[in-house]
Amino acid sequence: MRAETLLLLLAALLLAATGTAAAADNTAPLADAGVDQTVPVNSTVYLDANGSTDPDGAIESVAWAVETPGGDRISPACDDCRRTEFDAAVVGQYTVTLTVTDDDGATRSDTLYVTATTERGPDVSLSGPSSTAPGSNTTFIANVTGDDASLQTLTWLVDGSVVERESLAGASSIVSFTHTFDSTGDATVRTVVYDTLGERGSATRRVSVSNSGGGGGGDGSSGCYATWCGDGGADARYTIEGDTHISDTNGADGLQTYDDNGDLVSIENPDENPNVEEKLNDGYVVEGGLSSLDDDALTVD
């Protein structure tokens, strides 16, 4: 009996030693939940786990957990997707935890903090296509209105990286930004505006980049979106409450856009048209939309 017991004990020790060695050979994954964020309350917060890596294997799964400022748990739009989002509905600090698991079952977590603040700075809206194709010029329009102070700077970020920064002035501005995405996948475009008091406003738009995505089209069929129309020879355009906003982005004389028939048309002398109001940064507003203009104000290109 003693010999059998000794053999069983030696076998168990050998098995345990083998398991420990296997576990020791595996390096735990590196979780990356992204950088901390500060957003206006009621904003959509975008989360991205694609910075996570496994030094000796692959990331098998991800899991997101969001804790509200009041300590409640809420679920993002997809809690096991690499990219997801949630709404910051109350003021305060949200704790977002990302847990990743590698192909050997090892896990590691990372935490980011999202601070939702009361919106006191400039009011910013961002329009543009929700889909595009790699290599296609894609234009976005920021419509900015100051609150208690003049506007000062506007910064464009793509996937969290600063791409362009410019100075502003006055109480309102319409600013266009054209970007070419190199690869397919989901991308985020964000604009951040500061006024002279240091108050901030921002807006974010998610874009799906695919080989079947939208892009500029000379016939207007693929160059126009719900509130946006650009590329294919046209200036960037969007519509708010029936008024058409056009930003002179193509460098040609006059303003070029698509009419309701999909034809590329020009407003030859916008500064002389009583229905066209000039704004800052080469922006114009056509009150009542294109249908308010006389036929002789538009020429078909």
Write up what this structure looks like.
The protein is 8% helix and 48% strand. The protein is mainly beta and 301 residues long. It folds into 3 domains: 37-117, Immunoglobulins (Immunoglobulin-like, Sandwich), CATH 2.60.40.10; 120-214, Immunoglobulins (Immunoglobulin-like, Sandwich); 216-301, no CATH class. The strands form 6 sheets. Strands 1-7-6-3-4 form a 5-stranded mixed sheet, with no helix packed on it. A 5-stranded mixed sheet has the order 9-15-14-11-12, with no helix packed on it. It has a 5-stranded antiparallel sheet with strand order 16-17-18-22-21, with no helix packed on it. It is elongated. Residues 14-22 and 215-228 have low confidence and may be disordered.
Fold blueprint:
Blueprint: H1 2-25, E1 37-40, E2 43-48, E3 59-67, E4 73-74, E5 83-88, E6 92-102, E7 107-117, E8 123-127, E9 131-132, E10 137-145, E11 151-158, E12 161-167, E13 172-180, E14 185-195, E15 200-209, E16 229-231, E17 234-240, E18 243-247, E19 255-258, E20 264-267, E21 276-279, E22 283-286, E23 298-300
Parallel strand pairs: 1-7, 9-15
Antiparallel strand pairs: 2-5, 3-4, 3-6, 6-7, 8-10, 10-13, 11-12, 11-14, 14-15, 16-17, 17-18, 18-22, 19-20, 20-23, 21-22
